[in-house]
């Protein structure tokens, strides 16, 4: 057993942290970081800075100019990037693009790679992942999928409504989950690729949400008889759920990595404040009521870090790590939310203002206990495995 | 012992709830409810509607057109008002005006009542309470007060910076806490009344904050050689801390009342959703993972309600109830925050959006664990009383 | 609304507290307080002392020499008695006798009152309540009842095994829950009265349990063709579940009352220790890490007290208060367990020893989250009411 | 980074688990496992069985017949041993002997090794560690040491009272922490070695405690003019605190390892029960209220495991790991206590009885949040490091 991070990864993570701290953090007060996330203009500016600093998209395969980081490598680098919520935007390792790249890398045909993955990987354009639907459609339970795909000659006709589609506004293309109607695959979920420029795709509105760190925000998207050619299927027909799983386990973990970076930042801000601000005759940090919160933050950061590393190691070994990535999602999302909460509390009145990044982090990270499976769905899955005696 | 609410109070509370539900709630999507709180224009419109419905400012003494509600009466009515975060704005029982009215009612001279309390009580204008200062000034520890008042002939000259001053933007007058410099009261905190129209009072900026339900938002206010006459002192010179305590105990409790109303609303929204939204073969509410959260909400609402009633009863008996109002503040602010958190979690993706009021409630109520004394300061005070053997 | 406790009740509670503190507490080191509870010998000695002090069985109706305390009266007096875990034993208001008296008082025929209630109420003998069965029988789910009652001529023949039967060892009689087999009431739960001296009732063993405050401990009891006359039915045939509910709601609440008394005691012991024991340059109580725990204890005691009062008031009004007594059970059992845990933690090494009563209280109160419905069953019931829209 | 456990360690851990499950577990109902811990007779019988199985004392250096396990090796093996609370007793890797062996191994002179370490390492006799004193002596704050050592010619005269001295009853020798009075080292803590057979050492009583898994229980020990030769000092004069630290960091971690084994056992018992016991129409484990508890157990076990491994790795690298071992102590002791609590709750009525080992585990592990530094002392230390900016 060995917890050493390879020198090469450490060096890259260290450069990323420096880049984020010196170059990205000052952008946190940029007006282009709106309540619907950073604008594409800001995103591109940050991407250019990352390219210049040699830290752009290091997770991408070397084929597309990246460094093909392992999951453990990502653990180090994405956490460094997450030090600012704009860091993953700058490095182009934010959701949903990062997860989409992974999915396409595993599943896409060569021509799809060329057309969709290549421009995505190089940052030429963005993408979105259209799975979630409003009630009574597919939310926590993907089997409630209502969006349909019907074969009309050589063309698939897709109809339905999606929502909470992150980054839809401004995306070049979409991966759409739909239920096949008719034919041999009748009733089975399937993934399709489509250009967002298609007139049959309508962004009905951008939702006002508690979080604001994803480029393009979260949109309601409608498909009105969207027609795509028969080869627009990603992978095999009827394998949508399988691919969603392929995407999800690592996607969950990269969320953990990025948010861990923000937790470390919040803890730094709270600690620095606790060293300086006085009350009742001494600095806050000399009050146990405050220092115990800092200690609890440190422990939550510690266990989150270890959990991420362990699951990343399993993924690097080629395991599915379903149970472990579920546990990592719950452990990290809840631990990091506590760090955000305590950090805000330590800052007191200042914590309630946008004068530090902690307020925004607190709001953003609230959604993390919900997306990619709410804690309840993961607890249910973890518990069911135990009760039914599955090893994994 | 008797937990019955008098019929007259029940009737008023019932009318208030109806008014809020039917008239106020639709305003929750009004664009004049900004991220810095409702505009004064919206506030006045809501005040007029409340007057028309006969529910305006029922806590105000009959002298000024109110009903002189007892603390227990307020418990019922303010909770009904809090069903919408705009309800207390409409009824003119929101912070800081409601607390300022109480303070002026107890402390102000007849001429000050006429000049300040009367227009405030009737809703002609708003007020602000200038106590909190940025680090290293008076925050949780009021003894760190840095704003000074120096007597220059017959005029007090006030200098200093305040922040997180709720409702300063648009307020007619301010109650200012400053430390006397020189003279017999040297070093002692004193309250002053001043018109906000004075050029020496500068609103430097309105803070971007996590909450957004207070009219005028929270501002940074600077006094640059603000000159007020010698009779601008509220009450006695040097008694600032004592008056702050007079204001605080009931002010804390009315916060609890109003937020309890919002918690009841969130629970209703979450329950309704849990009855309708399906996942994994049944409605959410039939999953114990969800129904246990609803049960915990019910219990947190129950204990909050009982705690408020008990402290209100003590205040009505004329007790200071310092220990009990501290406990009520901690118990309610934490219980209600948990209700907000669970309700949002039950709503899942919907909960992260502004499509229900729960998202805004979740954010707003976060600040409640900080203002009027963060939980840590109250725990410290409660614990100290126990250790040092004070009965109260 | 009014939280005053009537002077007469206050006076009695005060006498009870004094009796418990001065007379009962010294018995806490008596060797007759075994790991299976106080012996009957000790119980009788304590009963005599209580009689002498004029505080014996004040909840019992005047007919049997008691004072016919209301539920609110019990709230004050049982909490005072609970100051020592031997207090309720001394006053003869401990489980299961106290609940059995209530049940018999509501349901028993005159001849049953004379034969069973009278000697029970006057402390001549004890009783037990035989409902719980080992897996796969009736535990949390009473509908899994396996013990049967079969009519053979004029005689009921009862067969089955019960366990966790509190006080069975030494009891004069039992109330037995059994499922009728055959006849019109086939399959319906029914309560029977039987003398424990019957040879067909075998106490197989007394269980070693985490708690030790109930006289007689908890036993495994077997009925081997126990024959009782047809008039041994308590109340009506087939109404067993209804009577169980009649017994349960108040029985749960009296548990809350008694344990609250122990929580107050633990808090006193912890506070006194925190005032005296030093570490790192000051007394423990001046460390926020300790004083915050005392403050949390105070708040948990406060909400438990209020919850008990409220439910008692409802019961006194004649309401069933099913929802409220469920909430009170969960709120109090969990809050009081936290008080026990924090008090033990404050005492440190001393807390792990039997040199204070806190260690025993900590263990005993652990079972309170399980008996009379585990927290999970109550949360399930509370949540179901909310989801299904029942008001009560 | 690599989380693989070496095959050799895995193999040993697997043999230990098998030994504990098949040979040791049946002893859990042996009457020689008293409320003051296993008797020495039982301990020796178990030791012999472990020797026979080839798993005795694998942590001991090869010089004394052990396998000189690294900290990571211990993590695997001690956790396997902890599957039964008697496992560490059988393998002779329980506290305080295991920690004393480590201390002696690092600090003792060759003649002291021969006289004290050798018989201890081979299981010929046991030892105790006399540091803790009753109030107002050394508890959480070792600097309050009251036991004195005064040089009288060539002899040290030791006076004082210790308590909570684990294993004193039946121990062959003691390591005594005392404060030197007079001379150059005046006032400095120093460790002494003494035979427990000395008449000047009196075991005043064995404490009744909440836990019961340590051989010999916990005693009050008095030194009345205990005279030991000048070479009875362990290591250097005045270095007592330093040695206590050398002992503590690994000793804390081995506690975590052993208790983790018991947590795994409790989770197995609860899971098995949840698969079998029915309520309300299905097995408990199909109720989310239960399966979520199993899931939380799994996550607490997971983070405990990872935290132990990480700190063990640091210790193996030769680092002091003070911060990490403090964090591991708090994280594991609190997580494992939650596992015990949930497991007991899942078992319901059964959980409150000694019919499963969970009841005993629940009680024993309560003390773990107190010994080797209560959570509060560790949080204080962790927080202080952060506030004062120490890296370690």
TrEMBL record, chains A, B, C, D:
Domain Acyl-CoA oxidase/dehydrogenase middle per the UniProt entry, residue ranges: 128-209
One MF term in the entry's GO annotations: acyl-CoA dehydrogenase activity
Biological process per Gene Ontology, one example term: fatty acid beta-oxidation using acyl-CoA dehydrogenase
An example Gene Ontology CC term for this record: cytoplasm
Residues forming coiled coils: none
Keywords tagged on the record: FAD, Flavoprotein, Oxidoreductase
Domain named Acyl-CoA dehydrogenase/oxidase N-terminal: residues: 11-123
Domain of life: Bacteria
Domain Acyl-CoA dehydrogenase/oxidase C-terminal residues, every copy: 238-386
Pfam families: Acyl-CoA_dh_1, Acyl-CoA_dh_M, Acyl-CoA_dh_N
Swiss-Prot/TrEMBL cofactor(s): FAD
InterPro entries: Acyl-CoA_dehydrogenase, Acyl-CoA_Oxase/DH_mid-dom, Acyl-CoA_Oxase/DH_mid-dom_sf, AcylCo_DH-like_C, AcylCo_DH/oxidase_C, AcylCoA_DH/ox_N, AcylCoA_DH/ox_N_sf, AcylCoA_DH/oxidase_NM_dom_sf
Family: Belongs to the acyl-CoA dehydrogenase family.
Self-association and partners: Homodimer.
PANTHER family registered for this protein in UniProt: ACYL-COA DEHYDROGENASE FAMILY MEMBER 11 (PTHR48083:SF13), MEDIUM-CHAIN SPECIFIC ACYL-COA DEHYDROGENASE, MITOCHONDRIAL-RELATED (PTHR48083)
Annotated protein name in UniProt: Acyl-CoA dehydrogenase
Organism: Afipia massiliensis
